[in-house]
Protein backbone atom coordinates (compact mmCIF):
# COMPACT_ATOMS: atom_id res chain seq x y z
CA UNK A 1 0.00 0.00 0.00
CA UNK A 2 1.06 3.62 -0.48
CA UNK A 3 3.27 5.22 2.17
CA UNK A 4 1.67 8.04 4.18
CA UNK A 5 3.48 10.97 5.79
CA UNK A 6 2.32 14.11 7.57
CA UNK A 7 4.04 17.30 6.49
CA UNK A 8 4.18 20.79 7.94
CA UNK A 9 6.00 22.07 4.83
CA UNK A 10 4.36 24.43 2.39
CA UNK A 11 2.56 22.79 -0.52
CA UNK A 12 4.61 24.99 -2.84
CA UNK A 13 8.01 24.06 -1.43
CA UNK A 14 7.51 20.34 -0.76
CA UNK A 15 9.43 18.12 -3.15
CA UNK A 16 6.89 15.93 -4.93
CA UNK A 17 5.81 14.87 -8.41
CA UNK A 18 2.42 16.56 -8.03
CA UNK A 19 0.53 18.73 -5.59
CA UNK A 20 -3.22 18.28 -5.04
CA UNK A 21 -5.48 21.22 -4.17
CA UNK A 22 -9.23 21.46 -3.71
CA UNK A 23 -11.62 23.65 -5.68
CA UNK A 24 -15.31 24.24 -5.19
CA UNK A 25 -18.20 25.91 -6.96
CA UNK A 26 -19.37 29.20 -5.48
CA UNK A 27 -22.95 30.17 -6.31
CA UNK A 28 -25.23 28.57 -8.92
CA UNK A 29 -25.55 29.48 -12.56
CA UNK A 30 -28.87 31.19 -13.24
CA UNK A 31 -29.55 31.76 -9.54
CA UNK A 32 -30.28 35.44 -8.76
CA UNK A 33 -28.54 36.35 -12.01
CA UNK A 34 -25.18 35.18 -10.71
CA UNK A 35 -22.78 32.99 -12.58
CA UNK A 36 -21.20 30.04 -10.78
CA UNK A 37 -17.50 30.49 -10.20
CA UNK A 38 -14.61 28.52 -8.80
CA UNK A 39 -13.14 29.12 -5.37
CA UNK A 40 -10.04 27.51 -3.93
CA UNK A 41 -10.36 25.43 -0.80
CA UNK A 42 -8.18 26.12 2.26
CA UNK A 43 -4.74 24.61 1.76
CA UNK A 44 -4.28 25.94 -1.77
CA UNK A 45 -3.01 29.41 -0.76
CA UNK A 46 0.71 28.82 -1.36
CA UNK A 47 0.09 27.25 -4.75
CA UNK A 48 -2.31 30.03 -5.73
CA UNK A 49 0.35 32.61 -4.86
CA UNK A 50 2.71 31.02 -7.39
CA UNK A 51 0.01 31.63 -10.03
CA UNK A 52 -0.18 35.29 -8.96
CA UNK A 53 -3.57 34.61 -7.41
CA UNK A 54 -5.02 33.41 -10.71
CA UNK A 55 -5.21 29.65 -10.15
CA UNK A 56 -9.01 29.59 -9.94
CA UNK A 57 -9.31 31.71 -13.11
CA UNK A 58 -6.85 29.44 -14.92
CA UNK A 59 -8.82 26.35 -13.94
CA UNK A 60 -12.04 27.96 -15.17
CA UNK A 61 -10.37 28.64 -18.50
CA UNK A 62 -9.49 24.94 -18.70
CA UNK A 63 -13.15 24.07 -18.15
CA UNK A 64 -13.02 23.00 -14.51
CA UNK A 65 -16.38 23.24 -12.75
CA UNK A 66 -15.47 22.23 -9.19
CA UNK A 67 -17.94 19.35 -9.24
CA UNK A 68 -17.36 16.58 -6.72
CA UNK A 69 -14.58 14.26 -7.84
CA UNK A 70 -13.69 16.22 -10.98
CA UNK A 71 -9.93 16.16 -11.60
CA UNK A 72 -8.07 18.80 -13.60
CA UNK A 73 -4.31 18.65 -14.17
CA UNK A 74 -2.18 21.61 -15.20
CA UNK A 75 1.53 22.40 -15.35
CA UNK A 76 2.94 24.17 -12.33
CA UNK A 77 4.30 27.70 -12.94
CA UNK A 78 7.99 28.06 -13.81
CA UNK A 79 8.71 29.37 -10.32
CA UNK A 80 7.04 29.14 -6.95
CA UNK A 81 6.02 25.44 -6.89
CA UNK A 82 8.59 22.63 -6.75
CA UNK A 83 6.17 19.96 -8.00
CA UNK A 84 5.90 19.97 -11.81
CA UNK A 85 2.16 19.26 -11.84
CA UNK A 86 -0.81 20.73 -9.99
CA UNK A 87 -3.92 18.59 -9.63
CA UNK A 88 -7.18 20.35 -8.77
CA UNK A 89 -9.93 18.11 -7.45
CA UNK A 90 -13.55 19.21 -7.13
CA UNK A 91 -15.28 19.40 -3.76
CA UNK A 92 -18.72 20.37 -5.04
CA UNK A 93 -20.66 23.45 -4.02
CA UNK A 94 -19.01 25.71 -1.46
CA UNK A 95 -21.20 27.05 1.33
CA UNK A 96 -18.90 28.87 3.72
CA UNK A 97 -15.10 28.71 3.50
CA UNK A 98 -14.94 28.86 7.28
CA UNK A 99 -17.06 25.72 7.66
CA UNK A 100 -15.20 22.38 7.53
CA UNK A 101 -15.70 20.35 4.36
CA UNK A 102 -17.75 17.19 4.96
CA UNK A 103 -15.39 14.25 5.66
CA UNK A 104 -16.91 12.05 2.97
CA UNK A 105 -16.51 14.82 0.38
CA UNK A 106 -12.82 15.04 1.31
CA UNK A 107 -12.50 11.25 1.29
CA UNK A 108 -13.93 10.94 -2.20
CA UNK A 109 -11.94 13.88 -3.54
CA UNK A 110 -8.67 12.51 -2.20
CA UNK A 111 -9.51 9.13 -3.67
CA UNK A 112 -10.27 10.59 -7.10
CA UNK A 113 -6.99 12.51 -7.07
CA UNK A 114 -5.02 9.42 -5.99
CA UNK A 115 -6.54 7.37 -8.81
CA UNK A 116 -5.67 10.10 -11.31
CA UNK A 117 -2.07 10.02 -10.09
CA UNK A 118 -1.48 6.33 -10.83
CA UNK A 119 2.13 5.87 -11.93
CA UNK A 120 3.30 8.79 -9.78
CA UNK A 121 5.88 8.32 -7.05
CA UNK A 122 4.93 11.09 -4.62
CA UNK A 123 2.07 13.56 -4.32
CA UNK A 124 1.48 16.32 -1.79
CA UNK A 125 -2.18 16.60 -0.79
CA UNK A 126 -2.96 20.20 0.17
CA UNK A 127 -6.64 19.67 0.91
CA UNK A 128 -8.43 21.24 3.92
CA UNK A 129 -7.25 19.46 7.09
CA UNK A 130 -8.39 21.83 9.82
CA UNK A 131 -9.06 19.05 12.33
CA UNK A 132 -8.23 15.37 13.00
CA UNK A 133 -11.46 14.22 11.33
CA UNK A 134 -10.39 15.94 8.11
CA UNK A 135 -6.89 14.46 8.39
CA UNK A 136 -8.44 11.01 8.70
CA UNK A 137 -10.75 11.57 5.73
CA UNK A 138 -8.04 12.81 3.34
CA UNK A 139 -5.61 10.09 4.42
CA UNK A 140 -8.20 7.35 4.13
CA UNK A 141 -9.52 8.54 0.78
CA UNK A 142 -6.09 8.85 -0.78
CA UNK A 143 -4.97 5.45 0.50
CA UNK A 144 -8.18 3.78 -0.67
CA UNK A 145 -7.93 5.44 -4.07
CA UNK A 146 -4.36 4.24 -4.54
CA UNK A 147 -5.27 0.60 -5.12
CA UNK A 148 -4.80 -1.97 -7.85
CA UNK A 149 -5.05 -5.75 -8.04
CA UNK A 150 -2.24 -7.24 -10.11
CA UNK A 151 -1.70 -10.69 -8.59
CA UNK A 152 -2.77 -12.42 -11.78
CA UNK A 153 -0.97 -10.21 -14.31
CA UNK A 154 1.39 -12.27 -16.46
CA UNK A 155 5.15 -12.00 -16.10
CA UNK A 156 5.42 -10.79 -19.69
CA UNK A 157 3.27 -7.70 -19.04
CA UNK A 158 4.91 -4.53 -20.28
CA UNK A 159 6.99 -3.05 -17.45
CA UNK A 160 6.43 0.39 -18.88
CA UNK A 161 2.67 -0.09 -18.87
CA UNK A 162 2.77 -1.48 -15.34
CA UNK A 163 4.77 1.53 -14.12
CA UNK A 164 2.21 3.94 -15.51
CA UNK A 165 -0.69 2.12 -13.89
CA UNK A 166 0.96 1.41 -10.53
CA UNK A 167 -0.78 3.02 -7.54
CA UNK A 168 0.52 6.32 -6.21
CA UNK A 169 3.53 5.32 -4.13
CA UNK A 170 3.72 8.05 -1.47
CA UNK A 171 1.14 10.44 -0.03
CA UNK A 172 2.18 13.52 1.92
CA UNK A 173 -0.58 15.28 3.86
CA UNK A 174 0.26 18.98 3.86
CA UNK A 175 -1.03 20.83 6.91
CA UNK A 176 -1.34 17.70 9.03
CA UNK A 177 1.04 17.92 11.99
CA UNK A 178 3.22 14.90 12.69
CA UNK A 179 3.78 16.08 16.28
CA UNK A 180 0.08 16.60 16.96
CA UNK A 181 -1.11 13.49 18.80
CA UNK A 182 -4.64 13.74 17.42
CA UNK A 183 -3.42 14.19 13.83
CA UNK A 184 -0.96 11.33 14.19
CA UNK A 185 -3.61 9.02 15.66
CA UNK A 186 -6.05 9.90 12.87
CA UNK A 187 -3.45 9.07 10.24
CA UNK A 188 -2.46 5.81 11.93
CA UNK A 189 -6.09 4.72 12.09
CA UNK A 190 -6.55 5.59 8.42
CA UNK A 191 -3.58 3.40 7.48
CA UNK A 192 -4.97 0.39 9.34
CA UNK A 193 -8.49 0.82 7.96
CA UNK A 194 -7.24 1.29 4.40
CA UNK A 195 -4.94 -1.72 4.62
CA UNK A 196 -7.77 -3.90 5.88
CA UNK A 197 -10.14 -2.64 3.17
CA UNK A 198 -7.39 -3.55 0.68
CA UNK A 199 -7.15 -7.00 2.28
CA UNK A 200 -10.87 -7.51 1.70
CA UNK A 201 -10.62 -6.18 -1.87
CA UNK A 202 -7.77 -8.55 -2.67
CA UNK A 203 -9.73 -11.54 -1.39
CA UNK A 204 -12.83 -10.52 -3.34
CA UNK A 205 -10.88 -9.98 -6.55
CA UNK A 206 -9.11 -13.34 -6.30
CA UNK A 207 -10.73 -15.79 -8.75
CA UNK A 208 -12.51 -18.83 -7.38
CA UNK A 209 -9.78 -21.17 -8.61
CA UNK A 210 -7.37 -19.24 -6.39
CA UNK A 211 -9.57 -19.01 -3.29
CA UNK A 212 -11.74 -21.91 -2.19
CA UNK A 213 -13.09 -22.44 1.37
CA UNK A 214 -9.96 -24.28 2.48
CA UNK A 215 -7.71 -21.57 1.02
CA UNK A 216 -9.75 -18.82 2.65
CA UNK A 217 -9.42 -20.57 6.00
CA UNK A 218 -5.65 -20.75 5.46
CA UNK A 219 -5.54 -16.97 4.88
CA UNK A 220 -7.35 -16.44 8.18
CA UNK A 221 -5.03 -18.83 9.99
CA UNK A 222 -1.96 -16.93 8.76
CA UNK A 223 -3.39 -13.58 9.88
CA UNK A 224 -4.42 -15.04 13.23
CA UNK A 225 -0.83 -16.11 13.86
CA UNK A 226 0.50 -12.70 12.83
CA UNK A 227 -1.89 -10.61 14.94
CA UNK A 228 -2.47 -12.85 17.95
CA UNK A 229 -6.04 -13.86 17.14
CA UNK A 230 -7.79 -17.01 18.27
CA UNK A 231 -8.95 -19.30 15.50
CA UNK A 232 -11.02 -22.44 15.11
CA UNK A 233 -11.68 -24.09 11.75
CA UNK A 234 -14.45 -26.65 11.38
CA UNK A 235 -13.83 -28.89 8.37
CA UNK A 236 -16.42 -31.10 6.67
CA UNK A 237 -16.04 -33.84 9.30
CA UNK A 238 -16.53 -31.43 12.19
CA UNK A 239 -19.46 -29.77 10.39
CA UNK A 240 -21.10 -33.16 9.91
CA UNK A 241 -20.56 -34.12 13.54
CA UNK A 242 -21.89 -30.74 14.70
CA UNK A 243 -25.02 -30.91 12.55
CA UNK A 244 -24.37 -27.86 10.37
CA UNK A 245 -26.93 -28.87 7.76
CA UNK A 246 -27.11 -25.48 6.06
CA UNK A 247 -23.39 -25.13 5.36
CA UNK A 248 -23.06 -28.76 4.36
CA UNK A 249 -26.17 -28.60 2.17
CA UNK A 250 -24.72 -25.72 0.18
CA UNK A 251 -21.22 -27.19 -0.05
CA UNK A 252 -22.24 -30.74 -0.95
CA UNK A 253 -22.23 -30.11 -4.69
CA UNK A 254 -18.61 -28.99 -4.84
CA UNK A 255 -15.36 -30.94 -4.82
CA UNK A 256 -14.09 -28.19 -2.53
CA UNK A 257 -15.53 -28.92 0.94
CA UNK A 258 -16.99 -26.15 3.13
CA UNK A 259 -15.55 -24.61 6.27
CA UNK A 260 -16.82 -22.64 9.25
CA UNK A 261 -14.10 -20.40 10.65
CA UNK A 262 -14.26 -18.68 14.02
CA UNK A 263 -11.64 -15.95 14.44
CA UNK A 264 -11.55 -13.74 17.51
CA UNK A 265 -9.92 -10.71 19.10
CA UNK A 266 -10.26 -10.10 22.82
CA UNK A 267 -9.07 -7.24 24.96
CA UNK A 268 -8.38 -7.75 28.68
CA UNK A 269 -10.29 -4.57 29.56
CA UNK A 270 -13.24 -5.17 27.23
CA UNK A 271 -16.71 -4.79 28.70
CA UNK A 272 -18.76 -5.53 25.58
CA UNK A 273 -18.70 -8.24 22.93
CA UNK A 274 -19.73 -8.21 19.29
CA UNK A 275 -20.15 -11.19 16.97
CA UNK A 276 -19.82 -10.65 13.23
CA UNK A 277 -21.03 -13.24 10.72
CA UNK A 278 -19.93 -13.15 7.08
CA UNK A 279 -21.30 -14.94 4.04
CA UNK A 280 -18.39 -16.69 2.37
CA UNK A 281 -19.60 -18.33 -0.84
CA UNK A 282 -16.29 -18.45 -2.69
CA UNK A 283 -18.17 -19.13 -5.92
CA UNK A 284 -21.89 -19.17 -6.53
CA UNK A 285 -23.11 -20.97 -9.65
CA UNK A 286 -26.61 -21.13 -8.21
CA UNK A 287 -26.28 -24.87 -7.69
CA UNK A 288 -28.98 -26.98 -9.33
CA UNK A 289 -31.00 -23.76 -9.71
CA UNK A 290 -28.27 -22.65 -12.09
CA UNK A 291 -27.80 -18.96 -12.76
CA UNK A 292 -28.53 -17.86 -16.34
CA UNK A 293 -25.72 -16.94 -18.73
CA UNK A 294 -24.29 -13.53 -18.00
CA UNK A 295 -24.81 -13.77 -14.25
CA UNK A 296 -21.88 -16.05 -13.38
CA UNK A 297 -18.78 -14.05 -14.21
CA UNK A 298 -18.59 -11.99 -11.03
CA UNK A 299 -19.75 -14.65 -8.60
CA UNK A 300 -16.29 -14.91 -7.06
CA UNK A 301 -17.46 -11.85 -5.07
CA UNK A 302 -20.11 -13.79 -3.14
CA UNK A 303 -17.69 -14.07 -0.22
CA UNK A 304 -17.51 -10.29 0.26
CA UNK A 305 -19.30 -10.48 3.61
CA UNK A 306 -16.77 -12.96 4.99
CA UNK A 307 -13.91 -10.82 3.66
CA UNK A 308 -15.36 -7.77 5.43
CA UNK A 309 -15.76 -9.63 8.73
CA UNK A 310 -12.25 -11.11 8.56
CA UNK A 311 -10.67 -7.72 7.81
CA UNK A 312 -12.63 -6.08 10.62
CA UNK A 313 -11.42 -8.54 13.25
CA UNK A 314 -7.84 -8.00 12.11
CA UNK A 315 -8.35 -4.22 12.23
CA UNK A 316 -9.73 -4.45 15.77
CA UNK A 317 -6.62 -6.35 16.85
CA UNK A 318 -4.22 -3.96 15.11
CA UNK A 319 -5.95 -0.96 16.69
CA UNK A 320 -6.11 -2.62 20.11
CA UNK A 321 -9.81 -1.83 20.48
CA UNK A 322 -11.29 -2.52 23.92
CA UNK A 323 -13.94 -4.91 22.73
CA UNK A 324 -14.25 -8.65 22.31
CA UNK A 325 -14.92 -9.31 18.63
CA UNK A 326 -15.64 -12.68 17.09
CA UNK A 327 -15.83 -13.25 13.36
CA UNK A 328 -17.71 -16.23 11.93
CA UNK A 329 -16.94 -17.01 8.30
CA UNK A 330 -19.43 -19.39 6.66
CA UNK A 331 -17.38 -20.68 3.71
CA UNK A 332 -18.69 -22.88 0.92
CA UNK A 333 -18.73 -23.22 -2.86
CA UNK A 334 -22.18 -23.57 -4.44
CA UNK A 335 -21.89 -25.91 -7.41
CA UNK A 336 -24.20 -28.29 -9.35
CA UNK A 337 -23.28 -31.98 -9.33
CA UNK A 338 -24.68 -35.40 -8.55
CA UNK A 339 -24.17 -34.75 -4.85
CA UNK A 340 -25.65 -31.24 -4.82
CA UNK A 341 -28.71 -30.32 -2.79
CA UNK A 342 -31.84 -30.43 -5.01
CA UNK A 343 -34.83 -28.10 -5.01
CA UNK A 344 -37.33 -29.78 -2.70
CA UNK A 345 -34.73 -31.29 -0.39
CA UNK A 346 -35.06 -30.66 3.35
CA UNK A 347 -32.04 -29.71 5.46
CA UNK A 348 -31.77 -29.97 9.22
CA UNK A 349 -29.96 -26.85 10.38
CA UNK A 350 -27.54 -26.43 13.28
CA UNK A 351 -30.35 -24.89 15.34
CA UNK A 352 -32.52 -27.98 14.82
CA UNK A 353 -34.97 -26.20 12.48
CA UNK A 354 -35.72 -27.90 9.18
CA UNK A 355 -35.61 -25.96 5.92
CA UNK A 356 -37.21 -26.90 2.62
CA UNK A 357 -34.85 -25.75 -0.12
CA UNK A 358 -37.03 -24.47 -2.95
CA UNK A 359 -34.22 -22.62 -4.70
CA UNK A 360 -30.57 -23.64 -4.37
CA UNK A 361 -29.52 -20.16 -5.53
CA UNK A 362 -30.85 -18.80 -2.23
CA UNK A 363 -27.89 -20.46 -0.56
CA UNK A 364 -26.38 -17.58 1.38
CA UNK A 365 -29.15 -17.55 3.95
CA UNK A 366 -28.57 -21.26 4.56
CA UNK A 367 -24.90 -20.95 5.51
CA UNK A 368 -25.60 -17.75 7.42
CA UNK A 369 -28.40 -19.38 9.41
CA UNK A 370 -26.03 -22.02 10.76
CA UNK A 371 -23.36 -19.46 11.62
CA UNK A 372 -25.87 -17.11 13.27
CA UNK A 373 -27.26 -19.88 15.46
CA UNK A 374 -23.75 -20.97 16.50
CA UNK A 375 -22.57 -17.41 17.18
CA UNK A 376 -25.68 -16.75 19.26
CA UNK A 377 -24.78 -19.58 21.64
CA UNK A 378 -21.90 -17.48 22.96
CA UNK A 379 -24.34 -14.77 24.04
CA UNK A 380 -22.54 -11.71 22.63
CA UNK A 381 -23.95 -8.27 23.35
CA UNK A 382 -24.90 -7.94 19.69
CA UNK A 383 -24.84 -9.88 16.41
CA UNK A 384 -24.24 -8.39 12.95
CA UNK A 385 -24.26 -10.41 9.76
CA UNK A 386 -22.90 -9.17 6.44
CA UNK A 387 -23.80 -10.75 3.12
CA UNK A 388 -24.12 -10.24 -0.59
CA UNK A 389 -27.52 -11.79 -0.08
CA UNK A 390 -30.16 -10.64 -2.58
CA UNK A 391 -30.49 -9.06 -5.98
CA UNK A 392 -33.74 -7.65 -4.63
CA UNK A 393 -31.80 -5.31 -2.36
CA UNK A 394 -29.97 -3.97 -5.40
CA UNK A 395 -33.30 -3.34 -7.09
CA UNK A 396 -34.44 -1.42 -4.01
CA UNK A 397 -31.30 0.58 -3.19
CA UNK A 398 -29.10 0.50 -6.28
CA UNK A 399 -25.45 -0.39 -6.63
CA UNK A 400 -23.90 1.91 -4.01
CA UNK A 401 -26.08 1.53 -0.91
CA UNK A 402 -26.46 -1.44 1.42
CA UNK A 403 -29.58 -2.21 3.41
CA UNK A 404 -29.79 -2.62 7.18
CA UNK A 405 -32.43 -4.74 8.88
CA UNK A 406 -32.62 -5.54 12.58
CA UNK A 407 -34.70 -7.07 15.35
CA UNK A 408 -34.11 -3.96 17.48
CA UNK A 409 -34.83 -0.41 16.26
CA UNK A 410 -32.22 1.22 18.50
CA UNK A 411 -29.52 -1.16 17.33
CA UNK A 412 -30.47 -0.66 13.68
CA UNK A 413 -30.11 3.08 14.25
CA UNK A 414 -26.69 2.56 15.87
CA UNK A 415 -25.49 0.54 12.88
CA UNK A 416 -26.85 3.14 10.47
CA UNK A 417 -25.07 5.88 12.41
CA UNK A 418 -21.84 3.87 12.32
CA UNK A 419 -22.14 3.61 8.53
CA UNK A 420 -22.68 7.36 8.27
CA UNK A 421 -19.69 8.08 10.49
CA UNK A 422 -17.57 5.77 8.36
CA UNK A 423 -18.73 7.36 5.11
CA UNK A 424 -20.56 4.34 3.70
CA UNK A 425 -23.99 4.67 2.11
CA UNK A 426 -26.58 2.57 3.93
CA UNK A 427 -30.32 2.66 4.51
CA UNK A 428 -32.53 1.15 7.24
CA UNK A 429 -35.04 -1.36 5.91
CA UNK A 430 -38.12 -2.90 7.58
CA UNK A 431 -38.94 -6.53 8.29
CA UNK A 432 -42.76 -6.60 8.12
CA UNK A 433 -44.17 -9.42 10.25
CA UNK A 434 -46.70 -10.39 7.57
CA UNK A 435 -43.87 -11.56 5.27
CA UNK A 436 -43.14 -14.50 7.57
CA UNK A 437 -46.14 -16.44 6.28
CA UNK A 438 -44.60 -16.31 2.80
CA UNK A 439 -41.89 -18.79 3.79
CA UNK A 440 -44.17 -21.36 5.43
CA UNK A 441 -43.46 -24.88 4.18
CA UNK A 442 -45.92 -27.80 4.09
CA UNK A 443 -43.12 -30.32 4.78
CA UNK A 444 -40.56 -28.46 6.92
CA UNK A 445 -40.41 -25.75 9.58
CA UNK A 446 -39.59 -23.10 7.01
CA UNK A 447 -38.78 -22.66 3.30
CA UNK A 448 -35.70 -20.83 2.06
CA UNK A 449 -37.64 -18.65 -0.41
CA UNK A 450 -41.13 -17.23 -0.65
CA UNK A 451 -42.89 -14.48 -2.54
CA UNK A 452 -40.77 -12.66 -5.12
CA UNK A 453 -41.94 -9.23 -4.05
CA UNK A 454 -39.99 -7.90 -1.08
CA UNK A 455 -37.36 -10.60 -1.57
CA UNK A 456 -34.62 -8.63 0.16
CA UNK A 457 -36.78 -8.13 3.22
CA UNK A 458 -37.91 -11.74 3.20
CA UNK A 459 -34.29 -12.90 3.35
CA UNK A 460 -33.92 -10.88 6.55
CA UNK A 461 -37.11 -12.42 7.92
CA UNK A 462 -35.63 -15.87 7.21
CA UNK A 463 -32.38 -15.09 9.02
CA UNK A 464 -34.23 -13.71 12.02
CA UNK A 465 -35.57 -17.23 12.64
CA UNK A 466 -32.05 -18.29 13.65
CA UNK A 467 -31.20 -15.39 15.95
CA UNK A 468 -31.77 -15.66 19.73
CA UNK A 469 -34.62 -13.30 20.65
CA UNK A 470 -32.71 -11.70 23.52
CA UNK A 471 -29.71 -10.56 21.42
CA UNK A 472 -29.79 -7.37 19.32
CA UNK A 473 -29.09 -8.33 15.72
CA UNK A 474 -28.58 -6.47 12.46
CA UNK A 475 -28.40 -7.79 8.91
CA UNK A 476 -26.37 -5.92 6.28
CA UNK A 477 -27.22 -6.82 2.69
CA UNK A 478 -24.24 -5.51 0.71
CA UNK A 479 -25.17 -7.09 -2.63
CA UNK A 480 -25.10 -3.72 -4.39
CA UNK A 481 -21.89 -2.00 -3.26
CA UNK A 482 -19.69 -5.08 -2.68
CA UNK A 483 -18.52 -5.35 -6.29
CA UNK A 484 -18.30 -2.40 -8.65
CA UNK A 485 -18.89 -3.45 -12.24
CA UNK A 486 -19.00 0.15 -13.48
CA UNK A 487 -16.17 2.67 -13.85
CA UNK A 488 -14.13 3.62 -10.77
CA UNK A 489 -15.30 6.66 -8.81
CA UNK A 490 -13.92 8.57 -5.84
CA UNK A 491 -11.90 6.08 -3.82
CA UNK A 492 -13.89 3.12 -5.17
CA UNK A 493 -12.11 0.90 -7.73
CA UNK A 494 -13.59 -1.38 -10.32
CA UNK A 495 -14.11 -4.85 -8.83
CA UNK A 496 -14.10 -5.67 -5.12
CA UNK A 497 -14.74 -2.62 -2.94
CA UNK A 498 -14.35 -3.85 0.65
CA UNK A 499 -17.87 -2.64 1.41
CA UNK A 500 -18.88 -2.66 5.10
CA UNK A 501 -15.34 -2.94 6.51
CA UNK A 502 -15.31 0.71 7.59
CA UNK A 503 -18.82 0.47 9.02
CA UNK A 504 -17.94 -2.62 11.04
CA UNK A 505 -14.70 -1.10 12.33
CA UNK A 506 -16.63 1.96 13.46
CA UNK A 507 -19.20 -0.31 15.11
CA UNK A 508 -16.45 -2.13 17.01
CA UNK A 509 -15.17 1.26 18.21
CA UNK A 510 -18.67 2.13 19.38
CA UNK A 511 -18.85 -1.26 21.10
CA UNK A 512 -15.61 -0.44 22.91
CA UNK A 513 -17.24 2.80 24.06
CA UNK A 514 -20.37 0.95 25.20
CA UNK A 515 -22.49 2.66 22.53
CA UNK A 516 -24.49 -0.08 20.79
CA UNK A 517 -27.81 1.76 20.82
TrEMBL record:
Q: By its UniProt entry, which InterPro entries does this protein fall under?
A: Leucine_aapep/pepB (IPR011356), Macro_dom-like (IPR043472), Peptidase_M17_C (IPR000819), Peptidase_M17_leu_NH2_pept (IPR023042), Peptidase_M17_N (IPR008283)
List, from the UniProt record, the residues annotated as the active site of this protein: 291, 365
The Cytosol aminopeptidase domain covers 359-366
Which keywords annotate this record? Aminopeptidase, Cytoplasm, Hydrolase, Manganese, Metal-binding, Protease
Instruction: Write one Gene Ontology MF term.
Output: aminopeptidase activity
Residues spanning the membrane: none
Give the family from UniProt.
Belongs to the peptidase M17 family.
Checking PANTHER family in the record gives: CYTOSOL AMINOPEPTIDASE, LEUCINE AMINOPEPTIDASE-RELATED
Tell me the function of this protein: Presumably involved in the processing and regular turnover of intracellular proteins. Catalyzes the removal of unsubstituted N-terminal amino acids from various peptides.
Q: What is this protein called?
A: Probable cytosol aminopeptidase
Source species, please? Streptomyces tubbatahanensis
Amino acid sequence: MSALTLSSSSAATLRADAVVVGVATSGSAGKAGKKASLVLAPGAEAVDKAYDGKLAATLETLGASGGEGEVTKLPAPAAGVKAPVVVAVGLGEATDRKEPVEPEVLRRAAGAAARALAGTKKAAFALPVQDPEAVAAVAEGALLGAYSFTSYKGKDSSAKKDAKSAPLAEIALVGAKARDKAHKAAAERAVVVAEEVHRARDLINTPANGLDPKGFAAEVRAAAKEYGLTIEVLDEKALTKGGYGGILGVGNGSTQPPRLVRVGWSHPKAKKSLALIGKGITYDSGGISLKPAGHNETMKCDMSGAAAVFSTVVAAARMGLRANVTGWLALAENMPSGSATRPGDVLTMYSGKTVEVLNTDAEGRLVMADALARAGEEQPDALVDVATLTGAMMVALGARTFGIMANDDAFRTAVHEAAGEAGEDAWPMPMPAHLRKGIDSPVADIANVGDRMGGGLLAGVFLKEFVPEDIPWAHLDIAGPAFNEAAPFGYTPKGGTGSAVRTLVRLVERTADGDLG
